[in-house]
UniProtKB/TrEMBL annotation:
Record Pfam families: Cytidylate_kin
Protein name: Cytidylate kinase
Main EC class the enzyme belongs to: transferase
Lineage: Bacteria, Pseudomonadati, Bacteroidota, Flavobacteriia, Flavobacteriales
Source organism of the structure: Brumimicrobium glaciale
Reaction it catalyzes: CMP + ATP = CDP + ADP; dCMP + ATP = dCDP + ADP
The gene coding this protein: cmk
Length: 226
């Protein structure tokens, strides 16, 4: 069997990573959450006071990239977690503070080149499911399967809100929805590799689909190609 490259792009909080993870597990492929890498880069910039809600020090962020070492390591349960300079930052990168700053860092061309290079290496041998915003367009334009995920914004906000509340965050549904809308706007209108639905992507609207139903759909798409 040929090892495929599978690209999953789409709007924020659409369940891209959930599907990518399930698909990778089923196919015994590597799963890469590219958004986590941007979140790691944003966290590093935040810790050095180079980005906040209304300020981004582009030049110093670029200069500090040589100090940013991003990697993934599986935890005891086999779940991939993000490491920044050798420290597990999986929890920290999911906070609303990082969510509110990440798009300002992700729009910087040099940040993207820095991370895209690493992402391409992770997928160099195929057998990878990567989710993000520019995977089918920029990172793996030759991916055999490209999925574009979308869902109703209210449903997305509610899902993300439930997730954050479950992990103990103090946050309102309105804050979560505002963040999704703002990120979608920034990610789809930026100059450098904006979020777009490429022509050869297959759309999955999962507003009314369970994770299991999405996996079934995705596996059917894989079967067609293999
Ligand atoms: O996927 P996730 O929502 O965690 O991504 C966080 C942010 O990282 C996105 O809102 C976007 O700004 C950026 N991102 C990106 N390109 C990717 C993945 C994520 O610009 N491939």
């Amino acid at each position: 069997d040929k090892e495929l490259t599978i690209a999953i792009d789409g709007w924020s909080s659409c369940g891209k990573s959930t599907l990518a993870k399930a698909l990778a597990k089923e196919l015994n492929y590597v799963f890469v959450d590219s958004g986590a890498m941007y979140r790691g880069a944003a966290l590093h910039a935040m810790r050095n006071n180079l980005v906040s809600r209304n300020h981004v020090d582009i030049n110093r962020i670029i200069a500090s990239l040589s100090d940013v070492k991003i990697s993934f390591k599986n935890n005891a349960k086999g779940k991939a977690e993000l490491y920044l300079n050798g420290k597990n930052v999986e929890k920290e990168i999911r906070t609303i503070e990082v969510s509110n700053s990440v798009s300002s860092v992700a729009k910087i061309k040099e940040v993207r080149l820095f991370l895209v290079k690493q992402q391409r290496i992770m997928g160099i041998n195929g057998g990878v499911v990567m989710d993000g915003r520019d995977i089918g367009s920029i990172v793996f334009p030759l991916a055999e399967l490209k999925i574009f995920m979308t869902a109703d914004p209210d449903i997305r906000a509610q899902r993300r809100y439930d997730e954050l509340i479950a992990q103990g965050d103090k946050i309102t549904l309105e804050e979560v929805k505002a963040n999704l809308i703002e990120r979608d706007e920034m990610d789809s209108t930026r100059e450098e590799s904006p979020l777009t639905q490429v022509d050869d992507a297959i759309v999955i609207d999962n507003s009314n689909l369970t994770p299991e139903q999405q996996l079934v759909k995705a596996l059917a798409l894989v079967k067609k190609i293999k």
